[in-house]
Amino acid sequence: MTGTTLEPGIDSEAGFSLLETIAALAILSMALVPLLALQFQLASGAARLEQQSELSRAVSVARVMLSATNPVIEPEGRRDLGGGWQVGWTSQPLGPPEAARYGLGVSSRYRMQVFRVTADVIDQDNRTSPLSLQTLGWVETAPFGYE
Length: 147
Prior knowledge:
Elements: E1 5-7, E2 10-11, H1 18-67, E3 76-82, E4 85-93, E5 98-101, E6 107-122, E7 128-140
């Protein structure tokens, strides 16, 4: 009784053989390997982007902080930037100090000097990113109200 059916219209031999199932799984796994590799590349790219974004934020904060720091008073130092980041800097004068002048050439009570500030932005793993800028340093040469 070969070829008998259990119900009319249904063959008892219908379905996938084990060999067909293995071949289908092999084809499916070969298709998934490039997709997994792409997923890995996307995840590592996102991690690098986040790290660069954090570095950019830390450098921006360091630049603003160093621009507001008077290198005459603090010629070098180290400060916390938040988020595990720090900045360490040194400054060197680029010329002699000069008296600051009002619009008509009248000297004020301040002496100004241009400085080059060289800094390192440091992450929590002690990796550094260099930063350099020019800023003004100043010192009061006469008390307030003295003109």
